[in-house]
Design brief:
By secondary structure, the chain is mainly α. It has helices at about 10-15, 20-35, 40-45, 50, 70-80, 90, 100-110. Bound molecules: heme C (HEC).
Length: about 120
């Protein structure tokens, strides 16, 4: 414990603090300044939302892709990436490896599933 009057200037405070306190302080600062890593598959899925609605929620003319069963979605995406291209979806899904499609399917399954739009 200190016997003199409490330090008033922040620099004096730091000098007075013991190394453990400083370590804890810097760890706390690092925790607050580092951005949290996005959930796996989130970045890969973000381009899907250009067509299928923000967070995979249905928009006019497009089916929602959020909240589906992950295994079924993965199977469907794989099929679309392998079949003879029928449309834009089959073409763009070829950009992903099967492992990436797995990450996308897993991530999409964690999103909410809202009702289909009634204006399509
Ligand atoms: C450029 C626009 C576009 C983008 C980007 C896009 N899609 Fe699609 N998607 C479509 C269209 C159009 C269809 C419907 C026609 C078809 O099946 O080709 C479709 C259909 C689908 C279907 C089938 C829906 C059903 O139940 O019939 C799934 C699943 C799907 N997309 C998932 C995805 C995923 C996952 C991504 C991101 C990796 C993605 N889409 C990105 C345009 C897009």
């Amino acid at each position: 414990m200190q016997t003199s009057s409490p330090p008033s200037h922040p620099t004096t405070l730091l000098r007075a603090a013991n190394p453990r306190t400083l370590l804890a302080l810097s760890a706390a600062c690092a925790y607050h300044t580092l951005p949290a890593a996005p959930p796996p598959g989130q970045l890969l899925s973000s381009q899907c939302f250009q067509c299928h609605g923000t967070n995979g929620q249905p928009v006019s003319g497009f089916e929602g892709i959020g909240g589906e069963n992950a295994n079924e979605m993965h199977k469907e995406l794989l099929e679309m990436s392998l079949r003879k291209p029928e449309g834009i979806m089959d073409l763009q899904i070829r950009a992903y490896t099967p492992a990436q499609l797995r990450l996308i399917a897993n991530y999409l399954s964690t999103l909410p599933k809202t009702g289909e739009t009634n204006d399509d």
